[in-house]
Amino acid sequence: MKSKQAGITLIGFLVVLAVVAFFGYMAMKLVPAYSEYMGVVKAMNQVSTEGSDGKSLDEIRRDLMFKLGFQYVDDATIQPQDITIDRSNGNQLHVAYDKQVPFVYNIDFLLHFEKSVPLQGNVPSI
Hints:
Layout: H1 10-50, H2 57-70, E1 83-86, E2 92-104, E3 107-118
Antiparallel strand pairs: 1-2, 2-3
Helix pairs in contact: 1-2
């Protein structure tokens, strides 16, 4: 009686290995950007819970940028003009920014991050 062999061939294994390596490399490039975003969210929550009574937009921006330093957010990631206050649904601290992550040769990932958190207290109108 002849036994039938089962399993993956060397070429099949190399194809599977190439696909896994591609997605692994992609994850290595993208995970730091998402962990940085989690730091931005944490800093925004800290600023929102501190209260903003009488603080101007510039003071809120300064507080947020200071807290972003503790969260290991790169200084070039978020610019002050990316931080706004949305008054349509009450006072909400709104941060929207784009991050470009180089991948291979001339291929980049463009990630868009946007988050709003409610501010406690009154923020004077400008």
